[in-house]
Design a protein that fits this description.
By secondary structure, the chain is an alpha/beta fold. It has five helices and 14 strands. Strand 6, helix 3 and strand 7 form a beta-alpha-beta unit. The radius of gyration is 21 Å and the shape is elongated.
């Protein structure tokens, strides 16, 4: 099999009934590995993706074979469907694969609680962690991981305790399509918690889809306006983009500041609100 030194690897775990149209790709390869059919498809710019249609058996061996065959030291993305996850695969990610994983995407919509808890160990290998789920993800019970960037899609409802836990575990937290009726109240409660406790957090950025203007988050707080020339670029999941300009700021008793800004987001007919926490006591916007 041809080895290209600049190939980026994306592992996708799909259901057995998945169909891949190989004609949509620059090149495609089909190999039988351990009596399993594995499809390799190559996109432009040397991006290689792998699919296997029966993930419940032999997943660890397939992963080890693919990484070895291409001498992969860095995996661009590993996508895991917890419904079909085997512990042996997570053990391979944690203990045997000695490279780095840039993005870890986890579909836990139908996964068991046991698998969900066990899977958090993989955070040690990835700076970006994305979750897709349709139920309450109780982060307050998970305290054994930290990461740079967490993306949560469809986590409903998301409680204040979970937001507090996330603020200690990730530099950036994105709540995408988590707009349950309680999300506004929980975000307001979190902001009040931050103001009153003087807590220090790992989290610097908090993004959430909402239709609520930024002023509504500050009913009893004095705020200042940020010059519209101050702009910040936002991108999530290689797909959704936005530019934040200006906004409102609130200064805490110890000098720490939170800026709040809302803006439309591309490809989504909603508004995203940005909470930007910056502990600059001199009143400057730092590196912005």
């Amino acid at each position: 099999m041809y080895k290209h030194p600049s190939v980026h690897y994306e592992f996708y775990i799909r259901h057995r009934e998945s169909f891949i149209d190989t004609e949509d790709y620059v090149k495609s390869y089909i190999r039988d590995i351990n009596e399993k059919e594995v499809i390799f498809v190559q996109e432009p710019r040397n991006k290689l993706k792998t699919y296997w249609l029966e993930p419940r058996e032999g997943l660890r061996d397939l992963s080890a074979y693919i990484v070895s065959a291409f001498n992969a030291k860095s995996l661009e993305k590993v996508t895991i469907d917890v419904k079909f996850m085997k512990r042996s695969f997570v053990e391979w990610v944690n203990n045997e694969f000695d490279g780095k994983i840039n993005h870890m995407i986890v579909n836990i919509e139908f996964g068991s609680a046991l698998n969900r808890e066990y899977l958090f160990e993989t955070c040690r290998k990835s700076k970006y962690l994305g979750f897709y789920c349709n139920h309450n993800l109780e982060f307050q019970y998970v305290s054994n991981f930290t990461t740079d960037d967490i993306f949560i899609n469809k986590a409903r409802p998301l409680k204040l305790d979970s937001l507090i836990a996330l603020s200690q575990q990730s530099t950036s937290v994105t709540l995408f399509d988590c707009s349950a009726p309680t999300i506004f109240a929980e975000l307001s409660s979190f902001l009040k918690y931050w103001m009153e406790t003087g807590c220090r957090m790992k989290m610097k950025y908090l993004y959430a889809l909402t239709e609520i203007p930024q002023k509504e988050f500050l009913p009893d707080m004095d705020y200042e306006r940020v010059d519209p020339s101050v702009r910040r670029h936002f991108q999530v999941h290689d797909e959704y983009k936005a530019i934040f300009a200006g906004g409102l700021t609130v200064r805490r008793f110890d000098g720490a500041v939170v800026s709040i800004c809302t803006t439309p987001i591309s490809r989504v007919p909603k508004t995203i609100v940005e909470f930007y926490f910056w502990p600059d006591y001199n009143g400057s916007m730092g590196s912005l």
